[in-house]
Amino acid sequence: MTLRIDRDYALELDHADELARFRSEFVIDDPDLIYLDGNSLGRLPKRSAERLREAVEHEWGSRLIRGWNEGWFTLPQRVGAKIAQLLGARTDEVIAADSTSVNFFKLVVAALRARPTRSKIITDDLNFPSDVYLLQGALELLGNRHHLHVVRSADGLAIPTDQLRAAMDDDTALVTLTHTAFKSGYVYDMAAITEAAQRAGALMLWDVSHSIGALPLELSKCKVDLAVGCTYKYLNGGPGAPAFVSVRKDLQDELLSPIWGWFGQRGQFDFQLQYQPAQGMARWQAGTPNILSLAAVEPALDLLLEAGLDRLRAKSVAQSEYLIGLWEELLKPIGVTLNSPRDYRQRGSHVSLGHVEALRIDRALIEDLNVIPDFRYPDNLRLGLAPIYTSFVEIHEAVMRLRRVIVNRLYEKYPSERPEVT
């Protein structure tokens, strides 16, 4: 059956959407703006704005230092426990702390030290480059006793599980991947790859930054060793919001963070000079947590838990299928390629479209037609679908405006040089 491409059909889909009411929970001050970059920075929840006012004006302004004994001190654990529900992990296996990069570095060093007779680290060329840089830095720090094996994708979209499995051997200390590839949106088989890594005797570390809040995760069911992620994408925690770290319960006493700070110290207010790691996830903290940013994250998590991940994933799939259907009817004939997996089971909550002029098209959409996607080198227009607030009408209108940019060659007035931030 041919997809209906009229706007009325998008309105019908929105009318039938059981999650539509959550859109009003977010700050949307320009109704004409189509925001499709929630996979980079989520919208501001109204509850977070209210929570920040309370934290600043009352807790900091009035209560001052007393705030530490009135909820601040346990905020990393409390936020971590809510994140755990979105990860499918135990509540005592997750803590909110630091940035994704810092947490990733901690876990890499800890994992390599836990496998002292092994020297191989496996990742792939679809990984987020920052994670690869951190791996390179960890190798340097540890005296270049390890080597990095980068598995290459044949098509730039995906890497088969068997190809990753074939790279693992008895010298492998760590396997680390981004669960949803940041360019194509390809989703790895978490259970199969984790099982293969563990069978080889390696530890498995997942970066779930582009997955959490957009699709159900099952860290406990998959017996995942280690995971990190951010809270400012689909979790809507705000720019630079604190990240999280997850360590499986039975590994928590075995692994040790390489960053020894006072919030990771056992009996921290004894102020002993000798470091003794705290028990459980507390040892993965370092310095004083960012209370205001953590405060903003918590109500954003509550919204996602209220909406329910199964319902969010179902809407995400419906929206990405709708978007790809519109691409097939309206954009494919004018030279736009699909740079994401066609099978929804292998796709996260963003769809990448390709065009030789993608960079200039991106600029025309943002600066002339009030659509905000993002661009990823060399030719990817990423359209992020945040099902908790993205509507079907927005998707329809975004495709229509994108088609207008290409057909009318509105992008030609923009230079081909890449701006500093894309």
Element string (H = helix, E = strand): HEHHEHEHEHEHEEEHHEEHEEEH
Total domains: 2
Can you give the helix content as a percent range? 25-40%
Alpha plus pi helix count:
11
Class of the largest domain in CATH? Alpha Beta
Cα-based radius of gyration, to the nearest Å: 22 Å
**Secondary structure category:** alpha/beta
Distance between the termini: 37 Å
Lateral arrangement of strands in the main beta sheet: 2-8-7-6-5-3-4
And the CATH topology of the largest domain? Aspartate Aminotransferase, domain 2
> What is the overall shape?
globular
Going by CATH, what is the homologous superfamily of the largest domain?
Type I PLP-dependent aspartate aminotransferase-like (Major domain)
Summed over residues and divided by their number, the pLDDT gives a mean of: 97
| Percent range for β-strand residues | 5-15%
Main pleated sheet: 7 strands, mixed
What is the name of the CATH architecture of the largest domain?
Answer: 3-Layer(aba) Sandwich
Number of strands: 13
**Which segments are poorly predicted (pLDDT under 50) over 5 or more consecutive residues?**
none
Textual characterization of the structure:
Strand 5, helix 7 and strand 6 (203-207) form a beta-alpha-beta unit. Helix 3 packs parallel to helix 8. With 422 residues, the chain is an alpha/beta fold. The chain has helices at 7-15, 46-63, 75-87, 100-114, 129-141, 161-167, 190-199, 291-307, 309-331, 358-368, 392-407, and strands at residues 34-35, 94-96, 120-124, 147-151, 172-178, 203-207, 226-229, 244-247, 337-338, 350-354, 371-372, 374-376, 380-384. The mean pLDDT is 97. The protein has 2 domains: 7-31 and 308-413, Aspartate Aminotransferase, domain 1, CATH 3.90.1150.10; 49-305, Aspartate Aminotransferase, domain 2, CATH 3.40.640.10. The strands form 3 sheets. A 7-stranded mixed sheet has the order 2-8-7-6-5-3-4, sandwiched between helices. A 4-stranded antiparallel sheet has the order 9-10-13-12, covered by helices on one side.
